[in-house]
Design goal:
The protein is built from 6 helices and 12 strands. Helix content is 26%, strand content 32%. Helix 4 links the parallel strand 7 and strand 8. By secondary structure, it is an alpha+beta fold. The longest helix is centred in the N-terminal third of the chain and has 22 residues.
Length: 287
Amino acid sequence: MLRVFKSISFAVLLALSLVGTSARPAARSASAHKIRVMTYNIHVGVGMDKKLDLARIAKVINDQKPDLVGLQEVDRGVERTQRIDEIVDLAKLTRMDYAFAFNLKYQGGQYGVAILSRQRILATDHRLYKNLREAERRGFIRAEISIGGLVVNFVTTHLDYQYEDGRVFEAQQLLDGLKDVKEPLIVVGDFNDVPSGGAYKLMKESFFDSWTQLLYGSWLDGSQNSPPRLGQGFTYPADKPTKRIDYIFTRQSDEIRPKRAWIVETLASDHVPVMAELEIGSQNHLR
């Protein structure tokens, strides 16, 4: 009789343990995708020493090992830069795929913005802004890239440097041009606007600034004990930076969280690059 009781007790305990196991929530199978991004105004490859040196620009990029790079002030076949096809040369030197958006005809060639990608670029979209007051025509380029099976949209742009209302006008066109993008969206570039400016504030209505998100967000939500020592994030001029005008933005409705951000100290251009490591698909992103 004792043996029968023990057998029944064991069976009951086993059944209860199985019920308890099945009641536990299943672990999330979808893992976050981590990528490293850079924005860099390369000043057509001319450094603070006034010398054209694309190999120096490529070394800055290679040393940081980015997955995606947004480039501004890129020449193709322009007289002032020895008619070099700068984006082709940079793609070869970094062993990355590329896309170029030609915004302006200049000295017999083309001038604009570009993207470098560690992965193959699947598709691109180029839009010119309708701001005709400034002599330098501007626009943005969007590239679709698959990272670990996830399609990511990466955008770079370069806004009006003369007039604030021009920057706001262009930033609104940028946002309008991206409103139908469904997949995760990252926007980087030289906005020629400080954080108190109108274009920056317009972007912040629907995008996070990775720098300030790390500086304040992770501290306020309790995931860090104190604010990280990021500094002010100044990017211009490269020799003595006093302005923060280059940014990495992520759309608020996407599951994208910055894990790290930093400035790269270099005199290879008149701007310094901004870097960020991003996690896409994590459920605990900052709000």
